[in-house]
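Teaching assistant here, posting this on the class forum so everyone can see the example we discussed in section. The complex has two components, and the goal was to see what a joint structure prediction looks like when all of them are supplied at once.
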Amino acid sequence: MPQFFSNKRLIVLLVSIIILVALIGTSMKERDALTMPEQFFKDSIGWLQSIFYKPANSVAGLFESIGDMKDMYEENELLKSRLNEFVAVSEELKTVKKENQDLKSELNIDSSTGLSNYQTFHANMIARSPDRWNDLLTIDKGEQDGVEADMAVATPDGLIGKVKNVQPFSSTVQLVSDVDRTNRIAAMTQEDKNVFGTIEGYDTEKEVLLFSKIPVDTKVEKGQTVITAGNGGIFPRGVVIGEIVDIETDNVGTTQTAYVKPASDLYDINNVMIIDRGAQNVNPDEGEGEEE
Amino acid sequence: MRRFFLVGTLFVLFLLEGTVFQVFAPEQYGFDFQLIPRFVTVIVVMVGMVLSPAYGVLYGVVFGLLHDLIYTDLVGVYMFGMSVAAYIIGYLSKVFHLNWFTTLILGLLGVTLVEFYVYELFSLINVTDVSFHSFFYSRYLPSLLLNGIFLLIVYYPVKRLLEDLSESRRQENQAKRRSFL
């Protein structure tokens, strides 16, 4: 057996450790945009990934729909009974919306600057980070389609994350479950009184979000729905985050923390909506206005 | 020609890890454990064993860097980890007579090195807050099983490909030496 560490090899090892630390240090910094080669690699490999991902996904979808088939009859009955209810509710919504608009115009509120005004456009997931340490998705819409960094990303069930990096033809989404101290969302519950707080991270073992900074004298209950508050600057108001499953008072005793179970399944993601709050640079025909 | 085949296979496996495998990941169906595919690492470690540690380092650097760029946003983590694992295992393999069993043990040792190194590093810089207990039982052990099965499936074709490669390399070197003399 040759000598395991000659002097030359030891030096090479030490130099590469130094380079490793330097690389991690530079890439950990807050970066506005990726460098050109990084963008190029991500885009071209993203295209290849979509070739693999789409067929696999449709095969998986086929099996799933066979599994769904047996519940179809019962579900259909239930939905039929709910249909009448839906007609009544949608009529009510229409009148309420009309009324709201009239009142707003009377009060001279410009509805386009509201916290809850946003537009969405759709994208498909094409890859996911295979090591579960980084909860990053790649989606098939990029700068050319109007995606910008920090836009909120949701499934029809609720919020899943935000856009982290944008390349010309694809972008990277950071999920809410990613452990990152900058991954914070202004949130609120909306029962009879608005309660504001911040989503400050994710408990990987319990699989819940931590909804903290809630004043200790306000009352929050299990089962309440948590939505984005819209005053954080990134996300619009009214995107569903999840449901409170447990509440704890912090050890200092001035605030309390609620555990929020995300409304959308963070592992079963196919189609996502990118939520554009600014809405200036997107053609209204492309996205559909979301109703609150 | 064979070299391109090896690189191509590694690249396709690299793409499968992030796409097709994610569609069938156990979390989607409500299981508690995680299966982390380390197919590229397994083959890179085998390159280090059968060809030479230096080749293992080369392949480790290239595919580790690719993994860093595409699936994480920290550059250098996998680049360093995969190449060092291939180097260490490549040297260790000289002590053993390589058959399917020792290759399995050494390959899994390589995966273990990468997993533990990445876990410790990411805990250190706060990318993750998973406790060691849950890392070990719900992530490391199931993944070891998955990658072990993968190694056994690809063992014969990959070994043959690598041995052909090293044989043709030896012949090239001899021809070069002869023309030099």
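For the discussion questions: Chain A touches chain B through 47 residues (CB under 8 Å). The helical segments of chain A are 7-28, 36-69, 72-107. Think about how each of these relates to the inputs above.
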